[in-house]
Amino acid sequence: MRDKKQVAILVSGGGSNMVALLESMTGDHPARPCLVLSNDAGAGGLKKAAAAGVATAAVDHRPFKGDRAAFEAELVKPILEAGADIVCLAGFMRVLTEGFVSQFQGRMLNIHPSLLPKYKGLHTHARALEAGDSEHGCTVHEVTPALDDGPILGQARVPVLKGDTPDDLAARVLVQEHLLYPAVLRRFAAGDKTLVQLG
């Protein structure tokens, strides 16, 4: 099995993108999941991963009381122990420091619900509507120390429809996230960084 890249997936909640990634890593896929890790032991994503037969771990950020370096020192341990070649952030709601990111430079992916470089950070769907955008979408990018920055590896676009609410838009984008992230990971694990475009 070692000819396949080992993938650790970090989640904070239900892990719908994680499930899409896990379901894609079958057959001739160049990668396999080695760990699903959360900052919340009660995260629904951990239960789903365990049910799928994937190793899980949790490192609660709360006891560290804002000491991000100390939290990350613990967070990295199960990733290294699992032998991860690639780290995928899938709804992991903690901002990671340069010290953590640098350990996985060029090997860490994130999915963000906007067409980067537009709308870094939170509330992306509301911001797209407020701006009057005609299209919106999601981006998979390599993680760098700068928030929602790094080389773009894939984007999926959806139309903004008249009367859309942020929730409407979020639901439409999420469908594309579940298609885009697995498509990018498959290429990335095979050493291909050409841009994936959907929609």
TrEMBL record:
Catalytic activity: N(1)-(5-phospho-beta-D-ribosyl)glycinamide + (6R)-10-formyltetrahydrofolate = N(2)-formyl-N(1)-(5-phospho-beta-D-ribosyl)glycinamide + (6S)-5,6,7,8-tetrahydrofolate + H(+)
Pathway membership, UniProt: Purine metabolism; IMP biosynthesis via de novo pathway; N(2)-formyl-N(1)-(5-phospho-D-ribosyl)glycinamide from N(1)-(5-phospho-D-ribosyl)glycinamide (10-formyl THF route): step 1/1
Residue positions binding (6R)-10-formyltetrahydrofolate: R68, N110
Record-listed E.C. numbers: 2.1.2.2
Site positions (Raises pKa of active site His): D148
Span of domain Formyl transferase N-terminal: 6-185
Residues bound to N(1)-(5-phospho-beta-D-ribosyl)glycinamide: G15, S16, N17
Molecular function (Gene Ontology), one example: phosphoribosylglycinamide formyltransferase activity
GO biological process: 'de novo' IMP biosynthetic process
UniProt entry keywords in alphabetical sequence: Purine biosynthesis, Transferase
Top-level taxonomic group: Bacteria
Active site: H112 (proton donor)
Xref: NCBIfam families: PurN (TIGR00639)
Family: Belongs to the GART family.
HAMAP family linked: PurN (MF_01930)
Name used for this protein in its record: Phosphoribosylglycinamide formyltransferase
Record organism: Leisingera methylohalidivorans DSM 14336
Gene: purN
